[in-house]
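Ticket #4471: structure output looks truncated?

Reporter: J.K.
Steps to reproduce: submitted the chain below (144 residues) through the standard prediction queue, then opened the result file.
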Amino acid sequence: MSAFAVILDANVLIPAAPRDTLLRAAERGLYRLHWSAEILAEVERNLVEHALTDEEGSRRLIGIMRDVFPEATVTGYQKLMAGLSNDPKDRHVLAAAIRAHAQVIVTENLADFHEAALAPYDIEAQSVDQFLTHLLSLTPSVMT
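Returned output as attached by the reporter:
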């Protein structure tokens, strides 16, 4: 339905409430969801490290997410990382966004995605609140 492509950073997929809301909106076709294997590995690891679930629960959740969104995983972005100027630990996220032709990176680490690094690719970083507010303004009948 929508050509609005979005990368979800790991930090918005770890807490259950934002993850659930973001995934439900994608499931309804309000945006095209993208992530990388590296992002999902970070989610899986942090769910266990922050005692939100055990290893089996974390693996199961990631498996379900992959099954529900089989076309979400971005590949072939690694070579793009070298030329990027955002935070080195998050270059894989920006590279995946570029490869996916995403318009938005949803993250709670906005400082790691400064405008100068994103502008050449017409990508904007938004917090979960900013992104969901934007979705609500675009699709009020679906988001309420």
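Triage note (M.O.): checked the attachment and the full token line is present. Strands lie at 5-8, 32-36, 73-74, 104-106, 124-126.
Status: closed, working as intended.
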